[in-house]
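Predict the 3D structure for this chain.
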Amino acid sequence: MEMSGERRIAAGRKQVWAELNNPSILKQCIPGCEELQSLSPTDMVARVKLQIGPVKATFNGKVLLHDLDPPNGYRIVGEGSGGVAGHAKGGATVHLVDDGTLMTYTVKADVGGRLAQLGGRLIDSTAKKLADEFFEKFTEVVEPPLAAEASASAPAERFKRWFKRRETTAGLP
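Done. Predicted structure below.
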């Protein structure tokens, strides 16, 4: 399974890079993450509890950072075992570009054991949902509060300005 996407984050690239390397931020953003502990700047151990379809499992595993190119991006790889539920491994290549920060990513995932018996469509949709949750939460955690509020209210403000212009020009011949 492979997917890609992008997020625009209203924070500088150096800040986004720092947060992508901060285990406490990553722990907040990884769906179901109960523990994420740094062993070195590039090695971490994690415990994640997930439900994929009817299968609930706690995965214990490793997270490794490769191809570090500060503050432009890296490749993050993880693998874990969920006991009788099976195993999962995957990774993401993340690139950061200025302009606020545009974060693009490509995610690959693979499962085995009982999880693999659930079917590709369920696995793919769950993996997409988990990736979307991670990147959404990461954006929310990293963006400054005022930037998040401004970007959320921007469409409403544009609509109000458009409506006001329509009101003032409606009476013109």
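The chain has two domains: 2-142, 145-173.
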